[in-house]
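Hey team,

Sharing the DUF3243 domain-containing protein run so nobody has to redo it. Sequence (83 residues) first:
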Amino acid sequence: MATVLQVFDKWKEFLAERVSQAERAGMSDETISKLAFQIGEFLSNKVDPENAQERVLKELWDAGNEEEKRTLARLMVKLVDKA
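Structure output:
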């Protein structure tokens, strides 16, 4: 059985791969951030968190206004872009 950290690490790996693909496709940082925001909105509205890390991210997302959500999306992209 996978630990919570392994699951979260796999999610970060997945996101890092998508960011890398977007960069190779020539998307700007702004476009990638906009897509991350849209993904965050979708996940918040449609996906039930499966672990503690996902729950924290959802609660932070739900607590933020639009500007704060965009900042959180940019931070998640930065987190995985540096990995």
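The chain has one domain: 4-81.

Ping me if you want the raw files.
A.
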